[in-house]
Q: What sequence folds into this?
């Protein structure tokens, strides 16, 4: 699949601090890509480079096959973690202003804004001042400002902040729809369960360096530790398992365990059946992205 964005050995320094240290990765077209890392890892510095707010000290950023230039930000939508709405302006006026900064003509801008406001059932907010809206309402306006110019690349930094579960699901659905329509999305958050839900590829940055990258499912496979969960009926005598497993947890008729080296899942399952245990379910437990995130960052310290 073609790339919408390529980061090639990018370096960014602030006085004596190297915030981004020879970082390289690619974002594929039509992909939801997770940009992850602990606080101070260098994510914000990278986003500022991609959006041309600042420039790289070394390395090159390619947008749609071309070195990043001053025109490309009109094809990028950026929802920052720190929201940038003008509190005293009316919603409609503000969105029109921001859309025209992105190069849209007035008529086109208004049509796009009204389309998005209708999607969220908020057309009657047009004449409200931003300061009159709740944080969740402001977040919807910020999201519209991010996508109303039909950008090829959308950067979302903590997009669900301030949203209740219903509106979180609403924004998630729109993100997935934008992806289906061909947009590429960089998704940055500290909520790893959200990354698992929406992202296909990720890069994990710590102390300015890439410490992990790849497809989410493949990464989870790479970090699995031979852990399984079995739900069963009958009497399961752990001592009779001949040291083949390390018990991790047990709750009534359910047990979670780690197979010892040299023991396959099939062998263990066959052993249980021979002992007369009625198996209800038998599943491999893959590590969560949150567990992998913590492990990699701790290992990098």
A:
């Amino acid at each position: 699949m073609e790339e919408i964005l390529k980061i090639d050995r990018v370096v960014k320094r602030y006085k004596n601090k190297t915030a981004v240290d020879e970082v390289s990765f690619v974002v594929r077209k039509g992909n939801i890509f997770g940009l992850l890392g602990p606080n101070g890892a260098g994510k914000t510095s990278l986003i500022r480079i991609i959006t041309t707010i600042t420039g790289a000290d070394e390395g090159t950023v390619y947008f749609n096959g071309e070195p990043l230039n001053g025109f490309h930000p009109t094809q990028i939508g950026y929802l920052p973690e720190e929201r940038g709405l003008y509190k005293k302006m009316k919603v409609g006026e503000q969105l029109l202003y921001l859309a025209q900064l992105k190069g849209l003509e007035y008529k086109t801008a208004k049509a796009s804004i009204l389309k998005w406001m209708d999607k969220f059932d908020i057309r009657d907010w047009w004449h409200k001042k931003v300061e009159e809206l709740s944080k969740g309402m402001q977040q919807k306006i910020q999201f519209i400002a991010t996508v109303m110019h039909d950008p090829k690349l959308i950067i979302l930094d903590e997009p669900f902040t301030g949203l209740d579960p219903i509106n979180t699901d609403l924004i998630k659905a729109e993100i997935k729809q934008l992806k289906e329509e061909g947009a590429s999305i960089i998704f940055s958050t500290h909520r790893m369960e959200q990354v698992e839900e929406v992202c296909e590829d990720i890069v994990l940055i710590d102390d300015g360096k890439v410490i992990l990258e790849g497809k989410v499912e493949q990464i989870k496979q790479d970090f699995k530790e031979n852990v399984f969960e079995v739900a069963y009926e009958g009497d399961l005598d752990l001592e009779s398992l001949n040291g083949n497993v390390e018990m991790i947890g047990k709750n009534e008729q359910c047990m979670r365990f780690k197979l010892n080296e040299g023991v396959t899942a099939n062998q263990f399952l066959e052993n249980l059946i021979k002992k007369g245990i009625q198996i209800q379910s038998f599943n491999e437990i893959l590590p969560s992205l949150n567990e992998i995130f913590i492990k990699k960052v701790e290992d990098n310290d």
Summary: The chain has a mean pLDDT of 90.
